[in-house]
């Protein structure tokens, strides 16, 4: 099977492309060429926002199946549709579980749970793309499959609630500096290894029965944020981390950029029903517990400091939230950052 990955060198997609190639697929990865090709894959340099560039890449790859990891704007999926309709057997759109409405009315979340996230522009854009593509499936049979991952990480990330792509929070723990967790830290959350995600995705590719369907693809292991941060500290070898408990609304007043990703996502319970993908991919389950996955991430990032993506501005932001919380009785509190 000839498979084209639009974006195949990122946090999740690198392992997905490599796993698919290991199964015998001819895998072509379209990127701007800033990272090496995943193992077993062929790299085609193209700008996915540029119609001529992407058209040339599609013509060269002649894909049967396309997986889009880089669909954030409606214009991007419209371009894919124009270039691919009538020539492929499946188009897999990687969406997000952040599309679900907050607060949740029932857990675990299923693929039919209410959608519409008022807090996060990213989630609203993902849902807009989903709905436009679903209309194309209903109107002219465009062979769409939608996947909704939750918080998925590779060895490049130590996942956390403020910036998973940066090692900054882990570095603070290593240095004995305090960090914070939102609310009481007892909200359940799901973290999924990219290596597990790759197997689930691979089981759906080329499967005619999956066309027209929406799937969760997450681990079944739901941990509290207190447990998540304890596992991170353990992986780092930090015995007694200083972790302040700070209300979500207070955090977002001091760090407004977190309104979407925290108030609109990680401060809400993230527990998902994966029964549907298990019916379509018999025997599939996520096998890597977070304590194992995060230990692998810490080891790899310590061995590759150039990939740690340390962020001084994030470090300052964490300090600002902690200082404000500790000094809250001596300062006025800003207005609620709720969307108007």
What can be said about this structure in brief?
The chain has twelve helices and twelve strands. With 340 residues, the protein is α/β, with parallel strands linked by helices.
Describe the structure.
This protein is of the alpha/beta class and 340 residues long. It has helices at residues 13-22, 51-61, 74-84, 121-140, 168-174, 194-204, 225-236, 248-254, 258-266, 275-280, 290-303, 312-326; strands at residues 2-6, 26-31, 42-45, 65-68, 90-94, 144-148, 151-153, 179-182, 188-193, 214-216, 222-224, 243-246. The strands form 3 sheets. It has a 7-stranded parallel sheet, sandwiched between helices. A 3-stranded mixed sheet has the order 7-9-11. Helix 8 (248-254) packs antiparallel against helix 9. The radius of gyration is 20 Å and the shape is globular. The N and C termini lie far apart (49 Å). The model has no long low-confidence stretch (mean pLDDT 95).
Features:
3-stranded mixed sheet, alpha/beta, 12 helices, 340 residues, 39% helix, 7-stranded parallel sheet
Reported for the largest beta sheet, the result is: 7 strands, parallel
How far from one another are the termini? Answer: 49 Å
Which band does the percent of strand residues land in?
15-25%
Structure summary, number of beta strands: 12
Can you tell me the overall shape? globular
**Order of helix and strand elements from N to C terminus:** EHEEHEHEHEEHEEHEEHEHHHHH
Q: Report the average pLDDT across residues.
A: 95
In spatial order, strands of the major sheet run: 3-2-1-4-5-6-10
Weakly predicted, low-confidence segments: none
Q: Total number of helical segments?
A: 12
- Regarding quaternary structure, what we see is single chain
């Amino acid at each position: 099977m000839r498979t084209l990955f639009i974006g195949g060198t990122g946090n999740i997609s690198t392992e997905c492309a490599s796993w698919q190639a290991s199964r015998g697929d001819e895998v072509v990865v379209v990127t701007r060429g800033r990272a090496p090709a995943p193992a077993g894959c062929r790299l085609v340099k193209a700008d996915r926002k540029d119609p001529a560039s992407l058209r040339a890449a599609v013509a060269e790859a002649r894909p049967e199946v396309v997986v889009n990891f880089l669909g954030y704007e409606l214009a991007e999926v419209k371009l894919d549709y124009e270039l691919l309709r009538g020539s492929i057997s499946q188009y897999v759109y990687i969406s997000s579980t952040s599309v679900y409405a907050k607060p949740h009315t029932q857990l675990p979340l299923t693929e039919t749970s209410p959608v519409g996230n008022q807090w996060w522009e990213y989630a609203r854009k993902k849902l807009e793309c989903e709905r436009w593509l679903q209309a194309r499936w209903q109107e002219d049979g465009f062979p769409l499959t939608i996947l909704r991952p939750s918080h998925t990480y590779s060895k490049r990330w130590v996942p956390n609630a403020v910036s998973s792509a940066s090692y900054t929070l882990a570095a603070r723990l290593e240095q004995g500096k305090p960090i914070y967790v939102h609310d009481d830290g007892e909200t359940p959350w799901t973290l999924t290894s990219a290596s597990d995600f790759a197997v689930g995705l691979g089981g759906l590719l080329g499967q005619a029965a999956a066309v027209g369907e929406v799937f969760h693809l997450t681990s079944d292991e739901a941990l509290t944020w207190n447990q998540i941060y304890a596992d991170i500290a353990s992986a780092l070898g930090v015995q007694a981390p200083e972790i302040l408990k700070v209300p979500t609304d207070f955090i977002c007043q001091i760090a407004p950029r977190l309104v979407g990703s925290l108030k609109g996502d990680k401060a809400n319970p993230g527990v998902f029903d994966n029964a549907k993908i298990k019916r379509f991919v018999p025997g599939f389950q996520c096998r890597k517990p977070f304590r194992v996955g995060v230990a692998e991430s810490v080891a790899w990032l310590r061995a590759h400091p150039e990939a740690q993506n340390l962020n001084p501005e994030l470090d300052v932001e964490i300090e600002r939230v902690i200082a404000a919380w500790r000094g809250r009785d001596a300062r006025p509190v800003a207005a609620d950052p709720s969307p108007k």
